[in-house]
Amino acid sequence: MFFVYFALWVVLNGKWTTEIAAFGLAFAAIAYFFSCRFMGFSLKTDARLMIRAWQAVRYGVMLLKEILNANLAVMRMVLDLDFEPKPQLVKFNSGLKKERHRVVLANSITLTPGTITCLLEGDEFLVHALDESLVEGLDDGVMITRLKEMEAGK
């Protein structure tokens, strides 16, 4: 949080000088002390937030990669004149404990071209896939693995 306060100070000043940096450090220290004293922040909380932010960035990068791969697969299907789609409805349990992670998984599946999450009840997912080749890795793929790591705090 200290770095966020300092970055906010620098951005709002619009320029960088030694005096602005010194005042910014003092301002960030005072604001951080206030946050720790009256708002329940601590170094432990900040470390946990940094780990969560890093995990979210890693998940986002992985999701972009999966979206790109699925886009390429769907483009190949569309451009192949002999392609006959074999749509499928697939039910599976993710094993995720937290509801927010299950919702992130459902939205990630829907964002990935060729698949749509039709139903999410508890831990049970019902997913429609454009073709059987897009079903592979839904129930034990990289998205679920990363979300399980996030739940475990790794």
Describe this structure in words.
The structure is a single chain. Helix content is 61%, strand content 12%. By secondary structure, it is of the alpha+beta class. It folds into 2 domains: 37 residues, no CATH class; 110 residues, no CATH class. Helix 1 packs across helix 2 and helix 3 runs antiparallel to helix 5.
SSE diagram, text form:
Blueprint: H1 2-13, H2 18-38, H3 43-79, E1 88-93, H4 99-111, E2 115-121, E3 124-129, H5 142-152
Antiparallel strand pairs: 1-3, 2-3
> What's the pLDDT, averaged over the residues?
87
- Structure classification: alpha+beta
Unreliable runs: none
Strand content range: 5-15%
The total tally of domains equals 2
Query: Helix tally?
Result: 5
Order of helices and strands: HHHEHEEH
Helix content: 55-70%
List keywords for this structure.
single chain; 154 residues; alpha+beta; three-stranded antiparallel beta sheet; 5 helices; 3 strands
Quick rundown:
The chain is an alpha+beta fold and 154 residues long.
